[in-house]
Amino acid sequence: MLKIGSHVSIRGGLIEAAKEAYSYVANTFMIYTGAPQNTRRTPIENLKIEEGHTFMEAHGISDIVVHAPYIINLASYKEDIYQLGKDFLRLELERTTLLGANYLVLHPGSFTDKTSKYGIERIASALNEVLSETTVPLLCLETMAGKGSEIGRSFKELKDILDLVDLKAKIGICFDTCHTHDSGYDIIYHFDNVLEEFDHLIGLDKLKVFHINGSLNAIGTKKDRHANIGANESNPRGQDFIGAEALYNIVHHPITDNKPLILETPWLDTKTNLYKEEIAFLRG
After folding, report:
1. What is the value of pTM for the model shown?
2. What pLDDT is stored for residue 235 in this prediction?
3. Alpha-carbon distance 269 to 118, whole Å?
4. Residues near 255 by Cβ (< 8 Å), separated by ≥ 6?
5. What are the residues whose beta carbons fall under 8 Å from the beta carbon of 270, sequence distance 6 or more?
6. Sign of CA dihedral 125, 130, 134, 137
């Protein structure tokens, strides 16, 4: 089954998020529980969760995803930032559970003035504090582009985190096409080889969510700039260096079957409903 949707707003609660997704002819979607840059959150009782699930059930929408805010940095050496990250991750896991989502996607973190080894150990230590046997959603560490000092730019770094986590069954991986391309993996011509490497290091069973994005950059540039699918030189945001054909092939690869595929492509200020068009194209 092809489960495909996009990031949608939760400003009007889960019911409005579900209605927005439905307007794109999506059957899944991703939300932030609030602004990704801060800790301000609408009280959970105001998010119209029951109405949202009723609408989703009636319109064939399921298996939704929550994305943790960018302010969580579990690799930080600064104790106040580190503690904030752990505390807020606990709250986000609780909110994800109450929203009825199966996955919480998390950027692993940035080691800033330390080393990647330090950051990896710091992340694993935080996850060992936060995760418990009663944790319900899968915490999905996202593949990253390698911008600055962010961790997760290689499958090996994600493996190194997993090796140090006690409750490995509570961890999954979110595979971002823009990020893996920008970090140097050839997902255009050798996607199967990329999957073989992932399987060797981590295991394909850990792939739970996919972010389907084009890239404004050539392979290996480590910049993390998303592009609309198949965009060319005339696009206001620039050209997609991955290309529509490669992304279509990934979406229809057996590895993505029955997994949430989430578009995070740019929302251009036009009258064109790009999410709807991109979802329609990827459905084929």
Report:
1. 0.96
2. 72
3. 41
4. 195, 204, 207
5. none
6. negative
Note the pLDDT of residue 277: 92
Half-sphere exposure of 38 (CA within 13 A, CB side): 4
For the chain, how many residues are written? Answer: 284
- Which pLDDT belongs to residue 269? 56
- What 3-state class would DSSP assign to 206? helix
DSSP 112-166: TTS-HHHHHHHHHHHHHHH--TT--SEEEEEP----TTEE-SSHHHHHHHHHH-S
Backbone angles phi, psi at 272, to 5 degrees: -80, 130
In this structure, how many other beta carbons lie within 10 angstroms of the beta carbon of residue 276?
14
pLDDT of residue 274: 85
DSSP state at residue 143: P
* Pairing assessment for the beta strands 214-215 and 226-227 based on DSSP bridges: antiparallel
| Residue 110, pLDDT score | 97
Predicted local confidence at residue 146, as pLDDT: 94
Rounded to an integer, what distance in angstroms lies between the CA atom of residue 210 and that of residue 187?
Answer: 13
3-state secondary structure of 140: strand
Cβ pair 109, 73 in contact under 8 A: yes
Segments of the chain with pLDDT less than 50: 271
Distance CA 213, CA 221 (A): 16
* Token couple for 122: 């710091």
pLDDT, position 36? 80
